[in-house]
Amino acid sequence: MLIGTCHCRATGWELEGDPGSITVCNCTLCRRWGVLWAYDWEGERMHLTGESATYTRADRSDPHLEFRFCPTCACVLAWRARRPDADGRRRMAVNVRLAPPEAVADLRIDYFDGLDSFEDLPVDGRCVRHFWFRVDDPEASRAAPDAPTKGP
Hints:
This protein is mostly beta strands. It has a single domain, classed as Beta Complex (Metal Binding Protein, Guanine Nucleotide Exchange Factor, Chain A), CATH 2.170.150.70. 8% of the residues lie in helices and 32% in strands. The protein has helices at residues 30-33, 101-104, 129-132, and strands at 2-5, 12-15, 22-25, 37-41, 46-49, 53-55, 65-69, 76-81, 91-95, 109-113, 119-121. It has a five-stranded antiparallel β-sheet, with no helix packed on it. It has a three-stranded antiparallel β-sheet with strand order 1-2-5, with no helix packed on it. The protein is globular. The protein starts with a strand and ends in a 20-residue tail after the last helix.
């Protein structure tokens, strides 16, 4: 199980099984927050822990997504669809930047153009480690001294 926690450890998420590839999005929110997303369905393999606050875009009359964040330290935890799909499932993504670096360093990166085309972009073989660490540094993926070992 992959576990991510906010900075103050009051809230977080859990993801059971393989998270698959991780998405970098360049939309107006994701690029400001610097998030990296792993996707699934709410209540299936992904679960939020602790109390979180919600943000929805004020510039949209009917926003499709809500973003969850820690009300204490403001770390972005996840997004989820505001309405279920036709099959009753609700799409969700968690921010893998909240997981221990060594647990996610080798996950492959996909790119999504959330700013212009709303299409997937070509992949280039990079992994999460390329967004966090000096790739030539063998010590780069060591856990930070304050890295959580358990969920909230």
